[in-house]
Amino acid sequence: MKFILTLIALLAAPLAEAHGDKPHTPVAHAPAEQTGWGIAGTVATRTVQVDLLDTMRFSPDRIEVAEGETIRFVIRNRGRMLHEMVVGTPAELAGHAALMARFPDMEHDAPYMAHVAPGQSGEIVWTFNRAGEFEYACLLPGHYEAGMRGRIEVKAVAAAQPPVNEGVVRKVDRVAGKVTLKHGPLVTLDMPPMTMVFRASQAGLLDGLKAGDRVRFDAELDGGAYVVTRIERLP
Ligand SMILES: [Cu+2]
After folding, report:
1. What is the Å distance from ligand 1's center to 53 Cα?
2. Which pLDDT band, with edges at 50, 70 and 90, does 19 fall under?
3. Could you give the domains of the chain?
4. CA–centroid distance, residue 97 to ligand 1 (Å)
5. pLDDT (average), residues 21-38
6. Which residues contact 41 (CB under 8 A, 6 or more apart)?
7. CA-to-CA distance for 143 and 182, rounded, in angstroms?
8. CB under 8 Å, gap of 24 or more: what pairs does 208-214 form?
9. How do residues 107-148 score in pLDDT, each as one tens digit?
């Protein structure tokens, strides 16, 4: 378990330093470490407020994030006892909670956690660059077991595929919304290379195009007419 390794590394660090055989790297300057649930962020794209309650609950207890978002969690302790917020995979948090139950006085710190005293606020800035179902929890002894947990759903952003066909613009008729393309084989339409006229699927699609431009495009057969649905100029 990564957590135990981190603990061992922390315990071993002063020894390595004492031997003086390696220049030691200050922890504060360590590069952000990629985890299975994201990576420490810097500039947030969105702020999410989370309250810690003595009823052993988070408010809210469910957060949706789009893959790639960097969230600044502003974490307010609304209760009278210490709480914390730790972000991780369900498995990582469960393992960590079990360790906390065995070693209740253990202190730890990482960019994906914040310990917040009563009446105080804490902060986590985290980039969710992995899609999936994650959790946040308070791992203080008894709190996790009492249900102080929340869910984070990180939704995958569909990878934008470039248009599949290649061609060269022969003529653009913006008024009629038509473009003449000398194209290679049209994979999706099972058509050999030729020069033909396509209708633009929407106004503005042909803006900025001129004869001689090399392009990539998507085409469909729509009611007997060949239609360009996407077209991008190549550099
Ligand atoms: Cu708590």
Report:
1. 8
2. very low
3. 2-15+31-155 (2.60.40.420), 165-233 (2.40.50.320)
4. 12
5. 66
6. 70, 71, 72, 125, 126, 127
7. 67
8. 208/233, 209/169, 209/172, 209/179, 209/233, 210/169, 210/172, 211/169, 211/170, 211/171, 211/172, 212/168, 212/169, 213/168, 213/169, 214/166, 214/167, 214/168, 214/169
9. 888 999 999 999 999 999 999 999 999 999 999 989 999 999
Residue given tokens 């999410």 in the structure block: 48
The amino acid sitting at 170 is R
Give the whole-angstrom CA distance, residue 103 versus residue 95.
Answer: 12
Report CA(231)–ligand 1 centroid distance (Å): 54
CA of 91 to the centre of ligand 1 (A): 19
The tokens for 208 are 């900025």
State in Å: Cα 28 to ligand 1 middle.
26
Question: What are residue 96's DSSP bridge partners?
Answer: none
Which residue is listed with tokens 């360009």?
228
User: Which pTM was predicted?
Assistant: 0.58
Q: What is the pairing mode between strands 149-155 and 62-66? A: parallel
Distance 142 CA to ligand 1 centre (A): 8
CA 70 to chain centre: 7
